[in-house]
Description:
Helix content of chain A: 25-40%
Strand content of chain B: under 5%
Order of helices and strands of chain B: HHHHHEHHHHEHHHHHH
Strand order of the largest sheet of chain A: 6-7-8-3-9-10
Number of helices of chain A: 10
Distance between the termini of chain A: 51 Å
Structural class of chain A: alpha/beta
Low-confidence stretches of chain A: none
Largest sheet of chain B: 2 strands, antiparallel
Oligomer: heterodimer
Number of strands of chain B: 2
Strand order of the largest sheet of chain B: 1-2
CATH architecture of the domain at 1-78 and 200-250 in chain A: 3-Layer(aba) Sandwich
Largest sheet of chain A: 6 strands, mixed
Distance between the termini of chain B: 12 Å
CATH superfamily of the domain at 1-78 and 200-250 in chain A: P-loop containing nucleotide triphosphate hydrolases
Low-confidence stretches of chain B: none
Number of helices of chain B: 15
Largest interface: A-B, 29 and 19 residues
Radius of gyration of chain B: 19 Å
Shape of chain A: globular
Number of domains of chain B: 1
Mean pLDDT of chain A: 92
CATH class of the domain at 1-78 and 200-250 in chain A: Alpha Beta
Amino acid sequence: MSALLEVRGVSKRFGGLLAVDSISFEVGKGEIVGLIGPNGAGKTTLFNVINGIFKPDSGNIIFDSRDITGWPPEKVARHGLARTHQIVKPLNELSVLDNVVVGACFGSEHLPLKQAREVALEVLDRVGLGKRKDALARELTIAGKKRLEVARSLASSPKAILLDEVLAGLNPTEVSHMIGIVRGIRERGISVFMIEHLMQAIMNLSDRVVVLNFGKKIAEGTPTEISRDSQVLEAYLGDPNIAEKLMESD
Amino acid sequence: MLARPSFWMIVSVTLVFAVLPLATGDANLRENLIIIAVAIALASNLNLMIGYTGYVNFGNVVAYGLGGYIGLYLTTVTGWPLLAAAIGAGIAVSLFTLVFGLAILRLRGAYFGLATIGILEAVRTFASNFSPWGSAAGLYVSMSAYQPLGGPMRAVWIAYLAVVAVMGISMLLSLFVKRSKFGLGLFAIREDEDAAVVLGVNATVYKSVVYSISAFLPAVVGALIFYKNGMIDPGGAFDLSLSIEAIVMLLLGGRGTVTGAVIGAALYEQLRGYLLTSPSFTNFHLVITGGLLLIIILFAPEGLIGGLYRLLPRARRVFE
């Protein structure tokens, strides 16, 4: 599997904090890769560096065989790398349909309005928002707004999509619906790189998982490998041998 | 576009403005209508910034005043024909705002608004000290400058019809931008600029272009009006209160809507005309304007058309 997105030794520093510390990994074509790690591990910062909101201090980001390091976000989007936001950013006073039309118009295909509207309607049906197309975006529930985020980025016909906690805050029914949507994305050959806290979901969906802690990549592998990795267990559950270590040091 | 009721409303309003005073030959009516036409043109173009893009341009009158100065200079000193001078003024002012836009549109929210006031004051001070523009005394149009148009009387009518045409084009521009991909990009910026950028909207370019476009027609109107008035001076050309009145018109009618800018401008001019001529209010018109602005912002932030949408959701399709 050839790499679609390649992150090479990327670092991002905020003052004294090394938020992302020389991270490297790849996302292959049509692959679902999970990105997990405790709060503050640098997951969203890594997303922001990949899609151009922050410029990395060092390292390179290669997407679709082009070096997109330092590109502004709108250029990254037009090159076929879409993303959603953890804290949803609906265009509140526009209709649900128009929100998605924005994605289609300004995404990788530069569609004219009329075609963009057709694409948007089709995508809205796919994420289950078809009936709400004329509502204003602000009127949607949180689950609806999360789907809208996904719909907007899908409408841009991306080659890969960065999903930032699309399952957070959803109830179990909504979670399983969203998992269906994510699987559907992959079936269309779009790569998915997703941040998620819901372990069961990420272990189920992902082909591979990358684990961050304190800005560093501490593990990478299949969900099964990850769930057995001692460093990962430590990051999430604490050191299993902490009690013994404490006693030894006495 | 031809199937839209708004398009035909715009065409009708423009024709009524053009034909009514011509048919009756009523100079009073013409003077009343020209004030409303100017207001509609200014409010419609300001709507592109405030209503569509969400950037409050407090110094919007700078385009009008600069257009007036450049237009008057071109007609009186350089001897250009009126329409060429007006369009030349529009182009010059658009280029000027494009340059400034690239600089100040990095600012957001209140900071952008403050910067536009700064530009207005800077340009006013420049005009007050620039001797080719007559410094503080300003420029005058000599009677002979009206000769190419067949004397002052005819020149006034020609200027009137030209202003009405610009009013019509302003409304059409609003409608056209609103229904275009460009307009959708502006709306996305207004709603959430960060989200718009992540969706692929080149916000820097879009904002600069709309800032520049929204200056073109006001500059043309300025060139026509000050030519018609026969004089221009820095205080009259760069009057901050006129900027704020244009904002009141827009908010009164309903920002972001083509019809709202028109209705707000017409209503506000009626009110202003009444206040200015009524003996008990004449010194208070800006006080009442300020009060009106407060009431709108507190109780009806969407303006008259926004209220209409709320009562009758279907009205959205008719009154865009």
